Amino acid sequence: MTGGIAVIGRISLDLLFGGIPRLPGIGEEIYSESFDLQLGCSSFVYATTLKRLGVPVKFGTFLSAGMRSQMAKMLLDKELANTYINLYPTPEQNMPDPIMISAAMSTVHDRSFMSYADNYADKLIDDETIYHFYHGAKIAPTIPGYPEVMQQIAKEGTVLVHDTWWHDDMSLEREATMLSIASVFSPNDKEALFLTKTDNIEDALRILATLVKYPIITLGAKGSATIVDNQVHYIHPRKEFKCVDTTGAGDNFLAGIMYGLYHDWDILKAMTVGNICGGHSTTQIGCCKASLNLAQLKNYLQNTPN
User: Fold this and answer.
1) Of 47, 81, 212, 227, which residue is most buried, by most CB within 10 angstroms?
2) 287 φ, ψ (degrees, to nearest 5)
3) Residue 4: phi, psi to the nearest 5?
4) CA separation for the pair 259, 9 (Å, rounded)
5) Can you give the chain as a three-state secondary structure string?
6) What's the pLDDT band for 28 if we cut at 50, 70, 90?
7) pLDDT tops 80 at residue 1
8) Does 275 or 3 have the greater pLDDT score?
9) What pLDDT is stored for residue 93 in this prediction?
10) How do beta strands 12-20 and 159-162 pair?
């Protein structure tokens, strides 16, 4: 790939139950007001959001001959036709299905999840395949399981964007390799404070700024923050978005960052796009149900206060 954005990752089938008055107890059955079946996971969100905004994207994912994979393929063909490549090495019927499945149950107060994934090898593909897939891309999310490949890709000029997820043994030491080669690191506020062992966002940003060029902390309904030339900047969220569901908002935000970097915009403008993508995604249930197109994005940007 030359000049576009390359993304590799597994995807999930998300069963979304909405409008539940309460979660069912043992032996109980409750009907939801709404239901939808969608694809999820950060890699799918990145590829879908960026494609809708007109960015050239190559998406590598994993599909077997199993039932979940075939259901996912139907949805992929509808959303990302001619954009994705199946990288699963042996898509045979008796192989583990790489598609995860997650049932999300949303009440007026919060959400609960039940998820499942087949056991699979830590490395579904080899380093050479990853390298050739990412080679020549302008922007790419990191894949922490392939540090040598990521280092080579960064050395060749690909801008790497690193994200993390909450787990009890997370630490800056575990993130060190990716932070040393990534240009962007975007934890949420809880993750950032835990990683830096601080109790405020600005101190966390200053610590992260010693490790990565653009540390960006997402602040949920309060927007996002970064530090440039030792000055902390807060990018406030849009007020016109009525939040229905926050699933995938952080992934949509990071897709907006990649959109800005692809167009060589400064990081503050890229964060404005991130806030728009993240905020717009919350207006419908699911990661990518709210479809933001390029005309809408341009309209939001034109009406953004300086």
Assistant:
1) 47
2) -70, -40
3) -100, -155
4) 18
5) CCCCEEEECCCEEEEEEEEECCCCCCCCCCCCCEEEEEEECHHHHHHHHHHHCCCCEEEEECCCCCHHHHHHHHHHHHHHCCCEEECCCCCCCCCCCCCEEEEEEEECCCEEEEEECCCCCCCCCCHHHHHHHHCCCCEEECCCCCHHHHHHHHHCCCEEEECCCCCCCCCHHHHHHHHHHCCEECCEHHHHHHHHCCCCHHHHHHHHCCCCCEEEEECHHHCEEEEECCEEEEECCCCCCCCCCCCCHHHHHHHHHHHHHHCCCCHHHHHHHHHHHHHHHCCCCCCCCCCCCHHHHHHHHHCCCC
6) very high
7) no
8) 275
9) 56
10) unpaired
With cut-offs at 50, 70 and 90, classify the pLDDT of residue 150: very high
- Please write the tens of the pLDDT for every residue from 44-100: 999 999 999 999 999 999 998 889 999 999 999 999 988 999 998 765 656 788 999
Query: What is the C-alpha separation between 268 and 257, in angstroms, rounded?
Result: 9
Of 271, 195, 194, the closest CA to residue 234 belongs to: 271
Residues paired with residue 227 on neighbouring β-strands, in sequence order? 232
Enter the tokens of residue 250.
């952080």
Task: Please tell me the pTM assigned to this model.
Answer: 0.92
